[in-house]
Write a structure and sequence with these properties.
Glycg_phsphrylas, 832 residues, binds ligand B1N, Rossmann fold, 3 domains, 9-stranded mixed beta sheet, pyridoxal phosphate, Glyco_trans_35, glycosyltransferase, glycogen metabolism, alpha/beta
């Protein structure tokens, strides 16, 4: 049972637990005062809420410390296999609330702060969130760390300590503007810098041949520059267990030896300049979700964190006295998309150039070590690096990749004789136009396991972008449907529902999410349904307050809350949602008696700063919102709001407040989605296409509890193959035509008919994501939603069923599958 420890911990206090470890509210209160005084230099009389946040965070980190150290010590003693999750992004969200939850300390912390005249919720709100990711991929990594710790798996997350995370979004005159995210400016109480855990990262230069002591011919890399990577560790506490794993993020610093060289030649300013250039490597997260961009700094970031992480594994292996030949028995390394895939060449370099292994031994180890998760089918998102850039930055790796490729293509030729087209397609080097290094191919060749992130996505991978690799190595392929942590996204985000679940199911559901099924036995109980509705209503009021505070827009919690929050992207089709809203608006304006249950439409999400169309979609959402919200003829039934700066923090307010979850991507384009799962677990119904994990959500919940519309992935491919013409759909649908004309006319933009012309032309002339082709089906499906909402008792039943059948989408299930089927990992209980 989680948190059974609470009882013994009071005993510990009686037997002398101190201000750093004690778990009851009185000791916690003392610990907060202690940190205010000794760590912050403040007396309570002058302490701000932000000071209290920091003092409490430090007090809680102290309480993690013995678990954290004991966990590392146990892994080291036991020498069991360690899973290393390599990811360029970890979108963690605020730590304090989650750590209190996982330690079972929420009540004690609340009491301690109340005794100090402070409100815990206000204090929690002071935490700036570490936004070290763009969206789903980075958040998935964070959910997986939570599950790894909770399931007591020996694991470490490796990534980049960006000084600036994902930009903060502000809306000015309806447009997105970006502010740098200075998340470290107030200090970070969660991390511990380990300057003694540091590695050299080479850079540029050339390679040369030499003869080693045994007379063998070898190659070595003579770099142009060297920087250092310093470890910063953050504790990842499991829920209800003593396991506390580590997230190790690397920060770049100038390598001293190189500074000294410049100092010695007297060029002080050149030395300082080199130092600054070194440190830019980890300055900022690239704010791009999906499209790959051939930027030198991005390649530098990838190589930087990957080499530090692999060197760290070698250090751990050496400390444990393990043999280098046993590397793959000690470490399972998962590549979170291709961003860390340079690791394949880097591990080869380390094993051959630095540890003296021969090629075949090194290759066997490398393939046994790596697994590769693909997160997207969008062709423009598959990472490639221009060959000249790659050679300039990583000359030794290019040689290694050529050799991997030579041997690999021999294997392809042996399996598929006389098929030179296949050889060209599969090569690690793309030859079309400017030569490129294809990182997805490197990841496939260098990994024993390759997986997609939802059943449909994994099938499409095998049939499309990776079909040649599937033909060669079918046994490497599997599916691992994504999951989300029910701790942060249910227990922490939705305290009202958590209390109801605890009371109805007992306390174990957060670690055994299948137990949600038992809710179904309460569906026919009107009193239970009434309580379910009351929880949702309170969550909607909480969100309405937030929206009013941040936008001035007033929402009524009795209305249907229809929500789409995710990155802004054409394939996610926020504009399809908008076309529906404008359709309702137009109907109301044309037929004032037109009747439907009042709805509040909420949007949230960031656009990549350079993504012209996505930014214009945000402007259109805000323009439509402004017009509709100000129109007394319609605003008794329609409201639209754009919630600025969608983040993990405000997501925790948004998911629990949704009645309807919009998952309306063009089928075949969204690899999985994870927001879809967070909504479902919080009792929202989904309107969606057969895309990504929606397919499996609908399988779980039953067709009668899911609003399905739109073309399937096959139909999308067929339509596009036949030559899709959006004009045909426009011509055949007067209502759609009128909607497009209204948007184009300047009605929502104060008469300016230019501002949305690019969007209208995009949709009417090319419509790459079939918005117009799915429009009629979407509007019809939305009418079904309105009809269903009219029967509140039936809607509540469907809401309960959505939550009850969401157990599959716990990240615990996903992580157990990775551990068993890809990593060969055993759990290791930790005892403090
Ligand atoms: O990964 C998520 C999935 O649930 C989403 O469907 C998928 O779109 C998302 C380059 C990406 N795919 N690719 C990225 C992110 C950053 C970047 O620089 C690509 N993100 C996804 C988790 O599986």
């Amino acid at each position: 049972m989680p948190h059974a420890k609470r009882a013994t911990s009071s005993a510990t206090i009686l037997s002398g637990a101190d201000v750093r470890t004690g778990l009851d509210s009185a000791v916690l209160q003392q610990a907060v005062l202690d940190h205010l005084y000794y760590s912050l230099g403040r007396l309570p009389a002058v302490a701000t809420p932000a000071n209290y946040y920091r003092a409490l965070a430090l007090a809680i980190r102290d309480r993690l410390q013995q678990r954290w150290i004991r966990t590392s010590e146990t892994y080291f003693e036991r020498g069991r296999k360690l899973a290393c999750y390599l990811s360029a992004e970890f979108l963690l969200g605020p730590h304090l609330g989650n750590n209190l939850l996982n330690l079972g300390l929420e009540q004690a912390a609340r009491e301690a702060l109340t005794a100090l005249g402070q409100d815990l919720d206000a204090i929690l709100d002071c935490e700036p969130e570490p936004g070290l990711g763009n969206g789903g991929l980075g958040r998935l990594a964070a959910c997986y760390l939570d599950s790894l710790a909770t399931l007591q798996y020996p694991a470490i997350g490796y990534g980049i300590r960006y000084e600036f995370g994902i930009f903060a979004q502000e809306i000015r005159d309806g447009w997105q503007t970006e502010r740098t995210d200075k998340w470290l400016s107030g200090g970070n109480p969660w991390e511990i810098a380990k300057p003694d855990i540091a590695y050299e990262v080479k850079w540029g230069g050339h390679t040369e041949r030499y003869i080693d002591d045994d007379g063998a011919e070898r190659r070595r890399w003579v770099p142009y520059r060297v920087v250092r990577g310093i470890a910063y560790d953050t504790p990842i506490q499991g829920y209800g267990v003593d396991t506390c794993n580590t997230l190790r993020l690397w920060s770049a610093e100038a390598a001293e030896s190189f500074d000294f060289q410049a100092f010695n030649t007297g060029d002080y300013f050149q030395a300082v300049d080199a130092k600054l250039r070194s440190e830019t490597i980890t300055k900022v997260l690239y704010p791009n979700d999906e499209p790959a961009i051939g930027k030198r700094l991005r390649l530098a970031q990838q190589y930087f964190f990957v080499t530090c992480s692999l060197q760290d594994m070698l250090r751990i292996l050496d400390l444990a006295g393990g043999a280098i030949e046993q590397f793959a028995e000690h470490f399972a390394v998962q590549l979170n998309d291709t961003h860390p895939s340079i690791g394949v060449a880097e591990l080869m370099r380390l094993l051959i150039d630095e540890r003296g292994l021969d090629w075949d031994a090194a290759w066997t180890i490398t393939v046994a070590t790596f697994g590769y998760t693909n997160h997207t089918l969008l062709p423009e998102a598959l990472e490639t690096w221009p060959l000249p850039l790659f050679r300039e930055v990583l000359p030794r790796h290019l040689e290694i990749i050529y050799e991997i490729n030579r041997r690999f293509l021999d294997e392809v030729r042996a399996c598929f004789p006389d098929d030179s087209a296949r050889v060209a397609r599969m090569s690690l080097i793309g030859e079309a136009g400017e030569k490129q290094v294809r990182m997805a191919h490197l990841a496939c060749v260098g990994s024993h396991a390759i997986n997609g992130v939802a059943a449909l996505h994994s099938e499409l991978l095998k049939a499309s972008v990776l079909s040649d690799f599937h033909a060669l190595w079918p046994e490497r392929f599997s599916n691992k449907t994504n999951g989300v942590t029910p701790r942060r996204f249910l227990a922490l985000a939705n305290p009202g529902l958590r209390a109801l679940l605890d009371e109805t199911l007992g306390a174990s559901w957060p670690v055994d999410l299948g137990r949600l099924r038992e809710l179904e036995s309460h569906i026919d109980d009107p009193a239970f349904r009434e309580r379910w509705r009351a929880v949702k209503h309170a969550n909607k009021q909480r969100l309405a307050d937030y929206v009013q505070a941040h936008t001035g827009i007033v929402l009524d919690p009795d209305w249907l809350f229809d929500i789409q929050v995710k990155r802004i992207h054409e394939y996610k089709r926020q504009h399809l949602n908008l076309l529906h809203i404008v359709t309702l608006y137009q109907r109301l304006k044309t037929y004032p008696a037109f009747s439907f249950p009042p709805r509040a439409f909420l949007f949230g999400g960031k656009a990549a700063p350079g993504y012209f169309t996505a930014k214009r979609i945000i402007k259109l959402i805000n323009a439509v919102a402004e017009t509709i919200n100000a129109d007394p003829e319609v605003n008794g039934r329609l409201k639209v709001a754009f919630v600025p700066n969608f983040s993990v923090k405000n997501a925790q307010l948004i998911y629990p407040a949704a009645d309807l979850s919009e998952q309306i991507s063009t089928a075949g384009k969204e690899a999985s989605g994870t927001g879809n799962m967070k909504f479902m677990l919080n009792g929202a119904l989904t309107i969606g296409t057969l895309d990504g994990a929606n397919v499996e959500m609908r399988d779980e919940v039953g067709a009668e509890n899911f609003f399905l519309f739109g073309r399937t992935a096959d139909e999308v491919a067929r339509l596009q193959g036949e030559g899709y013409r959006p004009a045909d759909y426009l011509a055949g649908d007067d209502e759609l035509k009128a909607v497009m004309e209204l948007i184009g006319s300047g009605h929502f933009s104060g008469g300016d008919s230019e501002v949305f012309r690019p969007l209208v032309e995009n949709l009417t002339q090319s419509d790459p994501f079939l918005v117009l082709a799915d429009y009629a089906a979407y509007v019809a499906c939305q009418e079904g939603v309105s009809a269903a909402w009219a029967d509140q008792e039936q809607w509540t039943r469907m809401s309960i069923i959505n939550c009850a059948r969401g157990g599959k989408f716990s990240s615990d299930r996903a992580i157990a599958e990775y551990a068993r089927e890809i990593w060969g990992l055993q759990s290791v209980p930790i005892q403090v």
